[in-house]
Amino acid sequence: MYRILYKEQLNQTVFRLDVLAPPVAAKAQPGQFVILRVDEAGERIPLTVADYDPVAGSVTVIFQAVGATTLALSRLQVGDCLADFVGPLGRATETDGLKKVAVISGGVGCAIAYPVAKKLHALGCEVHTVAGFRNADMVILQEAFREVSDRFFLMTDDGSAGEKGLVTDALRRLIEGGERYDKVIAIGPLPMMKFVCCLTKEYDVPTVVSMNPIMIDGTGMCGGCRLTVGGEMKFACVDGPEFDGHLVDFDEAMERASMYREQERHAYDSACNLFGKEGV
Description:
Elements: E1 2-9, E2 14-20, H1 22-27, E3 33-37, E4 45-53, E5 58-64, H2 68-74, E6 81-82, E7 84-89, E8 100-106, H3 110-122, E9 126-133, H4 142-148, E10 151-156, E11 163-164, H5 167-176, E12 183-187, H6 190-202, E13 207-210, E14 226-229, E15 232-235, H7 236-239, E16 242-244, H8 250-257, H9 261-275
């Protein structure tokens, strides 16, 4: 069993959990993920490693309570235990040789982007971070990003925090202002990553995206997380989750991501009836 050491609600729907999982913490790297189950009867869901402490043996996950399992996960308290916490899975972010990187993140994707920016900063890379949210109420990890970024830009759709606009507005301004990046790393909603890649392709800037399609087993056996990259079928769980953004078929990925929306809504509504929605 994997005990919850720390819990924090970051905004109305986003939560942080630190989980005691020494074998995972000892090997985890930015970009990797775990697959967990809340209880023995629960479904398996992937969550990206948001941070890790090999000394304490803890792994941090940050998630949004938008489905039945994440709603159940949000109801757990410090001292409760998870049935499963398997990982680290997937390929770690490639950081070798990078001297200057722009990390572009959106929404809860910032939880995935943070450990990447943190490691790059620790390696001496110049890190420029752009974080985007719908409004001030949705902002998370702002101060954490500032600590690991040489330049940090906060964007909101309505201008209620930081600067009004999209992450692509800030990135275009940086590139056209003369910034030259070895790589852009984009992590967030599929439409955001798609338009970041459209922009960087204009300027021939190498771009990596983190893909989180439907996933079941996390070992490449079920095929649920397949996506098309450069005209070839890839599995996000073993070939990724990071891929060359200029080669990803985002339209196909977005279509597949919406396939089970009705079933997901039904499961979420059932979970709300069971648990209630207090604090979510």
